[in-house]
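To fix ideas, we quote verbatim a fold written out as tokens:
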Amino acid sequence: MGDILAHESELLGLVREYLDFAEFEDTLKTFSKECKIKGKPLCKTVGGSFRDSKSLTIQKDLVAAFDDGDQKVFFSLWEEHIPSSVRDGDSFAQKLEFYLHIHFAIYLLKHSVGRPDKEELDEKISYFKTYLETKGAALSQTTEFLPFYALPFVPNPMVHPSFKELFQDSWTPELKLKLEKFLALIFKASNTPKLLTIYKENGQSNKEMLQQLHQQLVEAERRSMTYLKRYNKIQADYHNLIGVTAELVDSLEATVSGKMITPEYLQSVCVRLFSNQMRQSLAHSVDFTRPGTVSRKLKDVPLLPSLDYEKLKKDLILGSDRLKAFLLQALRWRLTTSHPGEQRETVLQAYISNDLLDCHSHNQRSVLQLLHSKSDVVRQYMARLINAFASLAEGRLYLAQNTKVLWMLEGRLKEEDKDIITRENVLGALQKFSLRRPLQTAMIQDGLIFWLVDALKDPDCLSDYMLEYSVALLMNLCLRSTGLSPPTLILLQEGEEILTFEPYVNGALYSILSVPSIREEARAMGMEDILRCFIKEGNAEMIRQIEFIIKQLNSEELPDGVLESDDDEDEDDEEDHDIMEADLDKDELIQPQLGELSGEKLLTTEYLGIMTNTGKTRRKGLANVQWSGDEPLQRPVTPGGHRNGYPV
């Protein structure tokens, strides 16, 4: 009872403040009268009158700054005292702020006697222009405000018909009235009674705690399911191990009796022992005539969890766009972050053997169709994954088996105009495709050279990646006799920016100059004089390459081995080297929210399958074919491979 009496005055004051705020006038009179009759002290709420007086002062200062045309003071007070949630989320507040910026921009034009001070006017117009380019840009699609985006660029707005309304006498008072009503409403809402604040804070706190507990429960259930799966796998392995152990004990007893154990028997035991951990081909590869083979094999090959690819592909086709994006990202990371060699080969072989991208599927809905998704993120992440596949020789071979992949990539390259990273990855994949001769032929027949020539005419519109890979792709296609064309010569002659990628440009020039008709045209253009200009500015390596090109330009016969024959489409796989670029994982668009799974954790938690761990033997490429650096490039190459100095 003592505690209640000690705080009674403050509690009654809170009730009185709330009744006053909610405008319960009759109830407030009755309440005050009864408190007086009973002798209950009514404490004035601490800070109530102070808040009221402070609010009035702020309102007066804002209106005064409005009247004086002092935009710096006004917007300093505006941003300090108007909550950001109102400024950014309330449409009326956004529109009012837009008109307030116009008011200050034209203030000198309306209130100056004679010509306004040019420096001060320029400053106000510049302030308005900055607003339009930043926060005000959100209203640029609104018809009501669209004409005002031209205001900073009109020499004399006072006489322009579009801004006639702004210079009428009634415009400023009407705007001021809107401002005063808005401020009165905002500051009344900000003077929330303490009783209501206490209620809201407690309610919000309880809500947040419930959400947090629910999230923890979901996480605990997910972990429980993961651990249960692992337990079941361990239990199965345990029973299998007990059975194998019993057989091996029986075998040891048999050897004591003089019976021999055959390598075939050990082979069958090994297959059973490793059946749940790796492909049976590993067990079959163990040489039982050499002691210790099994242990060495286990140490050499790291174990990688396999995935449930049926479930994966189903979710890639039918899941939400966000889930699709996270899955494509996780599958790409698995490929790009795995260790080169056995581990990466295991990942790639699992993708290929399970036809992850549906390259062999004839269904209307397939994973490949994600390249045409309406979601920008899904399209970009699908292009990144295809580019990662194309970065590996076996991945290129897998993608090349379906000509539909090439057509889809060519179509996406020409149609994609929203996302530059999607376009970069599509182009990167096509450039790597050009290492394979059948795909070179298909790209030439599809007219890709003309598209590249057209795109490279305006290199300022291309990113560094697009520029480099476009030039490299053009060079690879120009190495074929059907890929030579005079427009390519003109482009290489006039495009100063693309000449910064001199290995590819020099290689393309060397190739196309092997055709007598193009050689004659180059001489008529004065190509030798242009090349000699570059000799003066280039380094020693570039100078030697240009000398080879000039020699080719002045020759009269077709040198042997410059062009690749178009008659022989056999694949000699001179593209053996795998180049996984760092750009594949740059500028990720999506980040997981609290409790959301991504990357390897998403794959191993939701899509865990039987563990496998075998890699495929790498095919040997033309390891002895080296580029000297003195001569122009004469074989297909990727920018990544060329930078790393790999054989081409």
Q: What stands out?
A: Residues 194-256 form the longest helix (63 residues). The two ends are 92 Å apart (CA to CA). The mean pLDDT is 76. The chain has 30 helices and no strands.
